[in-house]
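User: I'm putting together notes for a lab meeting next week and I want to include a structural view of one of the chains we've been expressing. I don't have a solved structure, so I'd like a prediction I can at least talk through. The sequence is below, exactly as it appears in our construct file.
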Amino acid sequence: YHHKSTNSIMLIHSMILFLDSCICFFKEEMDSTPMVSSLLNKLSNYTNLFPGVCEHEETEDGCRRVTATVPQMGTFIGVFLPCLQNILGVILFLRLTWIVGTAGILGSFAIVFMCCVCTLLTAISMSAIATNGVVPAGGAYYMISRSLGPEFGGAVGLCFYLGTTFAGSLYILGTIEILLIYIVPTATVFKGHDGDAMPNNMRIYGTCCLYVHTHTHTHTHTQYVNKLALVFLSCVILSIMATYAGVIRTIIEPPEFNVCLLGNRSLKNENFEVCAKKEVIKNTTITTELWNHFCNSKHLNATCDDYFTLNELTEIQAIPGLLSGVIKDNLWGEYAPAGMTIEKKNQSSVPTQEPTTDRDDIYLFNDINTYFTLLVGIYFPSVTGIMAGSNRSGDLRDAKRSIPIGTILAILTTSFIYISCVVLFGACIEGVVLRDKFGYSVKKNPVIGILAWPSPWVIVIGSFFSCSGAGLQSLTGAPRLLQAIARDGIVPFLRVFGHGKANGEPTWALLLTVGICEIGILIASLDAVAPILSMFFLMCYLFVNLACAIQTLLRTPNWRPRFRFYHWTLSFLGMSLCLSLMFICSWYYALVAIVIAGCIYKYIEYRGAVKEWGDGIRGLSLNAARYALIRLEESPLHTKNWRPQILVMCKLDSDLAVKHPRLLSFTTQLKAGKGLTIVSTVLEGTFMTREDEAKTAEQNLKAAMVAERTKGFSHAVVSSNLRDGFSILIQSAGLGGMKHNTVLMAWPVTWRQAQNSTATRNFIETVRETTAANQALLVAKNIDSFPGNQQRLEGGTIDVWWIVHDGGLLMLLPFLLSQHKVWRKCKMRVFTVAQLNDNSIQMKKDLQMFIYHLRLDAKVEVVEMHDSDISAFTYEKTLRMEQRTEMLKQMQLSRTEREREAQLIHDRNTASHSTSDREAGASPERVHMTWTKEKLLNEKNRQRESIGQVKDMFNMKPNQSNVRRMHTAVKLNEVVVKKSRDSQLVLLNMPGPPKNMKGDANYMEFLEALMEGLDRVLLVRGGGREVITIYS
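Assistant: Thanks for the context. Below is the predicted structure for the 1032-residue chain, given as structure tokens.
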């Protein structure tokens, strides 16, 4: 037994060593990437909460972690029932019968069908987004913001919040309408039948109801409000079942509700019982209560209203029944202007000239103008609420499965209910009763109530509690949505609403919600609030469809929804339908909603927090950029479209900060945000050793660009030497058709220092490479004295010295600068040089005509430069230049020899050590002598030669070609300084470097002589192509 135990222990130990050795193979990767086991452990402990949200109490230090309970809600309880409750509501009970009577069965069917298809297509898109990964608590806002980016997410999230808030106003107004018209009609504060009495009562009671809801919300935990939702939903379901039961009952026995008509006009029957002018009681004819409304006394010989006298009173059934054939009369709509009496079609009537507006206490009138698009706006809120399931995604057991199934089933169920109600209402109820919005013609009962069985009170009580509960839930959900947006940090001015009480209740968000909800209540009209609500929800649904369409078309690798029954055409159709419905409902409300969303979008874009959520808009931008880049390469750029696409060569100091930030300021002034700008720098070394410094340098470049308002890209390159780094940037910066065509750099002011001879070589090689690459070159001297973006030059001139024509860039640059506010007040002057054989007068005329055709506003001047004798100053300056060049060459050769000798000694010693190490039992190391007799003689001869060369240096004569070049530079400089000493900026043609590299140092001296005595100078070397044209 002991032997077996020992073997088992050894076996386990061997397995551990084996696993450990396997893991050791990935030891370096484990430092930066997690093991699969730890990754799975993190995923299993994932909770569906917003980052930073404290669901429970907070301690003084922040969020206190609590044990998260596992969500247990399934599809039916978690998605289907909440969607059902939010979709079915106030419009169904208070306005659907009126919509059917006004638009007719066919028109109402079209309205319901359009709205239901819109929400169904939106639900399909939402299901695809919701099943594409884990959806934390937050629902629609989370899905849109993570799919379309923070700008769209913030804009649509706030629209969704406003829609939810106005939904609270709608439900409260519906509650008060039911209360004051059907339950306690005597409780009105303002009496009378004038048009302002009822709205004022709605405002007072609506405000009180809002206060009660707010008080209930603040003193009742959210979980209790959610539990009451089942009670409110039960009321809705019972009311709908009562309605269907009433429809079935009409087949057997129609309800005993009658409508009184005078001629073809419908009358309010709340103040009379008998629909007759006279009645016989005990063989005595007496007048009825209705007589008193139209006649000046109760007597039979009283003077009565002409229409009352000429027309007879008839009483018809309000609900003829399902088999009565009334469906034929209700197929088509009856739209009418406000103030027109409600009349029965095909009913005989004798018209009169007497106005009927003074009989508003007995006749039924249309309270608003009715037309198809208005009814669409009023009806659409009845199909909203499809987001209820996605809003509870954090409480679902399997959100990816429950959200699509529950939401689509809820929409199909409610669509069936609405469409069946449209048909059944039109088939059972008389047309004049359907058009009676408040049921005044049926004893002040809701029209759907007289159809319900067993009593209208089932509908009254059920709709009252349904509307009240829906309003309370809106006031519960809207503040939390606003709090989620505020805590996401994308809208700076909303951050205060992210705070709340210790238990997480959004106190500040609730106050704002109550304020906005009060605005809706003060409107005091359910018909006026409904289109506002429709706009915000339609905006939200539009962007849900847009998000799904973009993700599908882009085919991003991360787009892998588990819900398969979607297509980009369905999303596009849903988006188009939402946009169409917005303008169908109300074109001015639609424009206001779009402007609000646009303003929020731009605010977040400029002032909001930078968030990278892998959104579809970024992917769309990448696709659009790729398409544009490919198109740009298909054909060469025309001269009319040419603009400087600038590669800025920046130099960094020892702290990796930009040494000349005014170079970026000048770029901003030259570009004004248009075209391509690449700000670059080069670090010496290898990328492996200077990776962190390269990242720091790039961040510093970006910070400097932000400070100087330069729009473009930054790029830091690590190269073995600066020369190769500059060459890499000139050759490879940019992409496709968006490559730079101009290089901007500062003049190397320290080029004369002996230790900075590489600066001279780098500069001249850069000039040569830009010329070879057909790129323009701009070199700014005294760049630190150039004006900043905050400065304003009050006058002065920009002087262009046009010596040779190399594409017209010299003419274009002053025009571009003058577009910026820094240089706007500067005038442009163009100077050109005439030689002895030139006609200066004709040159000036031609130049003026050329400037005119170029559409430039510039003063032209021709400067004559005649051949003159070379001055002693020029001769001496050239001699000093050549002596300095020769001296630097000798110093460079001497240093090179010493470095070569040191390298040779190092190589020999290294070889000696390597050989001795390889030989086993080798003898002690033998020292190799470096200096031999021959080498000593060679070194002495070389030193004698160098001394002789130094003596010859002081006896040398300058090269005549260099003398002539220096003479040209000095004479041109004299003319430029004379004319342009006080100008704000001087632009000069930059001569090319010599083909022979031996003259590089002389070239720098020539440029120094050319720019001597000038403050701000910009040397310009064209790229070899025309950049400006006289043609349109």
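A couple of points you could mention at the meeting. The first helix runs from residue 2 to 24. The first strand starts at residue 58 and ends at 59.

User: Perfect, that's what I needed.
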